[in-house]
C-alpha cells in the first residue's frame, strides 16, 4: 500500500531552480499550486514581469491530493448560497463555475496539455430522506438556470434520489498544473517567503537569504501565513478528508453525496478513487481511525486500496472563495470550499483584470473584504473553532512508537513539537507518516520538513528531547 496520492505516483516530477539572488519584478506570486500557476499563466501573457516562488515543489500541495473533478454540481454548496445569499448571488456563483470549467478546457485545448481530461456526467445523490427535498430544490434551481438535469442511479452506493448533469470533467491535477507553466521562466522551487514588508509603492518579500521587490504580490499559498491585515484564522476554517485509490475497472464515474457523510467517487484509468470521512480539521483528531473506517467502506464494496492519503481545504463562511485585493496591490486567492480546481483558474483571469484595471463581473462577488451576515456569524464561530483546536491538540494522548530512517518517535501526553504557525501541538499521522497541525492544516515530514502551509518554517524534530531514542 502506498501512502501518497495516485497523482503524485503517476507523474515525472519536474525540477526548477531555487532563488539564488535578490530580484525585482512587477508581480510576485507566492505559491505554486493550481492557483499560483493559473495566475502565472494569465499574467505572463501581459506586459508585466511575473515571478513565482514555491516553498516546496510545483503542484505538490493541496492540488496534488484532490480528487481532480471539474464540476458545478458541488455537494450542498449551491443550496447553501441559495438559502443564505439569495437567488441572484447563487446564479452568479453557478455561472462563475460553468465559465471556470470552460476556461480550463479551453486552456487544455489551446496549450495541448496532456492531463488525461475526460468528459463525464456528474451525479449527486442522497440516501437521507430529509435531503430529498433539498435535492429537488437544487434540481429546480439548475433547471431555472437552463441546466439540463437527469434522474439517474448508480451501483456503488445506495441512494434515495440522484440527479446528474452533463458537461463536467475529470483530469489529472498535477499534469494540468505542469501544462500551465510550460515556459518555466522566473519560477523558483524550494523558495519560501517568510516575511512581506510594504515600503512606499513596493512590497519586499523575504526568503531566508534574499529579497524580492515587487509592485504586486499575489498570495496563492492556500492557507496564508501572512495574517495581517486579513486575520485569516477567523475568516476561514479547514475541512479534512480521507482518500483512496483501488483497481476496479469501472467505466467513467463522477459521483458525490449531497451532504454528510460526504462521499466523493471518480474513476482514473483502471482505478476508483473514493473519498470519505470528511470532518472539520479540529473536530476529529484520530487520522488512523478515519483511514480504518474508509477501508471498511471499501471492503463493503469489495475493494482493497492501493493508495491512501488525506487532504484538507479552506472553507469560507459564506461558501464562496476569497479572490481579490486585501490591501492595495496585495491580492489573495483561496477559500474554494473543496471545489478549487476550476475556481483557481478563474482566479487567474479575475486577478489579471484587477491588475490591468479591467472590469470583471466576479470582482465584487468574490471580494475578500465582503461583509455579510454569514461572514459576521462565521467570524465569531471561527474564534471558537480556533480555541477548540488548540485545546484539543494539547489534550490528545498519543502513545505510539514509530520508526523511520532510524528516528524513533515516542509519543505521550507531553508536547513533542509545536506548529511554528500559531503553536498548536502537532499530531502524528501514522498512516501517511507526517506531523499534522489539527488547527490550521500545516504538515511536516517525519524529519521536520514543512510540506504544507500555513507554516513556512520547518520543525526541528531531530533535536527534540523526545526523539532519537529507542523506547
Ligand atoms: C479532499 C479534497 C478533494 C478535493 N477535490 C477537488 C475536486 O475534485 N475538484 C475541485 O475543484 N477541487 C477539489 N478540491 C479543492 C482543491 O484541491 C483546492 O481548492 C485547490 O487545489 C487549492 O489550490 P491552491 O493552489 O490554492 O493550493 P495548493 O495546491 O496547496 O498550493 C499552494 C502552494 O503554496 C505553497 N506555499 C505555501 N506557503 C508558501 C510560502 N510561504 N512561500 C512559497 N510557497 C508557499 C505550498 O507549498 C503549495 O504548493 C479538493 C480538496 C480536498 C481537501
Describe what you observe in this structure:
The chain has 471 residues and is α+β, with helices and mostly antiparallel strands. The chain has three domains: 16-64 and 175-233 and 320-377, FAD/NAD(P)-binding domain (3-Layer(bba) Sandwich); 69-172 and 234-316, D-Amino Acid Oxidase, subunit A, domain 2 (D-Amino Acid Oxidase, Chain A, domain 2), CATH 3.30.9; 396-452, no CATH class. It contains eleven helices and 23 strands. The strands form four sheets. Strands 3, 4, 5, 6, 11, 12, 13, 14 and 15 form a nine-stranded mixed beta sheet that branches. Strands 1, 2, 7, 8, 9, 10, 16 and 17 form an eight-stranded mixed beta sheet that branches. Helix 3 packs antiparallel against helix 4 (87-110) and helix 4 crosses helix 9. It starts with 5 loop residues before the first helix and ends in a 19-residue tail after the last strand. Flavin-adenine dinucleotide binds at residues 30-36, 53-56, 60-63, 66-69, 192-193, 220-222, 225, 241, 243, 275, 311-313, 334, 336, 338-342, 344, 453, 456.
Amino acid at each position: 500500500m502506498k501512502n501518497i496520492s495516485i497523482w503524485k505516483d503517476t507523474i515525472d516530477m519536474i525540477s526548477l531552480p531555487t532563488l539564488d539572488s535578490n530580484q525585482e519584478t512587477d508581480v510576485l506570486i507566492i505559491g505554486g499550486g493550481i492557483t499560483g500557476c493559473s495566475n502565472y499563466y494569465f499574467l505572463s501573457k501581459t506586459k508585466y514581469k511575473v515571478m513565482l516562488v514555491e516553498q516546496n515543489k510545483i503542484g505538490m500541495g493541496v492540488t496534488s491530493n484532490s480528487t481532480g473533478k471539474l464540476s458545478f454540481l458541488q455537494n450542498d454548496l449551491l443550496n447553501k448560497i441559495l438559502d443564505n445569499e439569495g437567488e441572484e448571488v447563487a446564479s452568479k456563483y453557478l455561472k462563475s463555475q460553468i465559465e471556470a470549467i470552460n476556461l480550463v478546457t479551453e486552456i487544455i485545448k489551446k496549450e495541448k496539455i496532456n492531463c488525461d481530461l475526460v468528459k463525464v456526467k456528474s451525479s449527486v445523490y442522497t440516501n437521507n430522506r430529509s435531503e430529498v427535498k433539498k435535492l429537488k430544490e437544487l434540481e429546480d434551481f439548475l433547471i431555472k438556470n437552463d441546466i439540463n438535469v437527469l434522474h439517474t442511479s448508480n451501483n456503488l452506493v445506495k441512494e434515495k434520489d440522484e440527479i446528474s448533469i452533463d458537461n463536467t470533467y475529470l483530469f489529472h491535477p498535477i499534469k494540468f498544473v505542469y501544462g500551465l507553466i510550460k515556459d518555466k521562466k522566473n519560477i523558483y522551487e524550494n523558495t519560501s517567503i517568510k516575511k512581506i514588508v510594504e515600503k512606499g509603492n513596493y512590497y519586499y518579500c523575504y526568503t531566508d537569504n534574499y529579497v524580492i521587490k515587487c509592485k504586486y504580490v499575489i498570495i496563492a499559498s492556500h492557507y496564508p501565513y501572512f495574517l495581517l491585515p486579513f486575520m485569516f484564522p477567523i475568516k476561514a476554517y479547514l475541512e479534512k478528508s480521507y482518500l483512496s485509490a483501488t483497481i476496479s475497472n469501472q467505466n467513467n464515474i463522477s459521483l458525490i453525496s449531497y451532504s454528510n457523510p460526504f462521499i466523493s467517487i471518480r474513476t482514473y484509468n483502471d482505478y476508483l478513487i473514493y473519498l470519505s470521512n470528511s470532518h472539520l480539521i479540529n473536530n476529529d483528531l484520530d487520522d488512523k481511525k478515519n483511514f480504518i473506517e474508509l477501508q471498511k467502506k471499501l471492503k463493503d464494496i469489495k475493494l482493497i486500496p492501493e493508495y491512501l492519503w488525506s487532504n484538507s481545504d479552506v472553507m469560507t463562511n459564506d461558501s464562496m472563495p476569497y479572490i481579490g485585493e486585501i490591501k492595495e496591490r496585495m491580492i489573495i486567492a483561496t477559500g474554494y470550499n473543496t471545489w478549487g480546481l476550476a475556481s483557481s483558474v478563474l482566479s487567474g483571469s479575475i486577478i489579471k483584470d484587477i491588475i490591468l484595471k479591467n472590469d470583471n463581473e466576479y470582482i465584487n462577488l468574490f471580494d475578500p473584504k465582503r461583509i455579510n451576515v454569514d461572514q459576521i456569524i462565521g467570524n465569531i464561530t471561527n474564534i471558537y473553532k480556533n480555541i477548540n483546536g488548540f485545546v484539543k491538540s494539547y489534550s490528545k494522548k498519543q502513545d505510539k512508537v514509530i520508526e523511520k530512517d532510524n528516528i524513533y518517535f515516542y509519543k505521550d501526553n507531553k508536547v513533542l513539537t509545536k506548529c511554528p504557525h500559531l503553536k498548536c501541538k502537532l499530531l502524528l499521522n501514522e498512516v501517511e507518516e507526517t506531523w499534522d497541525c489539527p488547527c490550521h492544516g500545516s504538515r511536516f515530514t517525519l524529519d521536520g520538513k514543512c510540506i504544507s502551509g500555513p507554516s513556512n518554517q520547518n520543525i526541528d524534530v531531530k533535536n527534540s528531547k523526545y526523539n532519537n531514542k529507542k523506547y
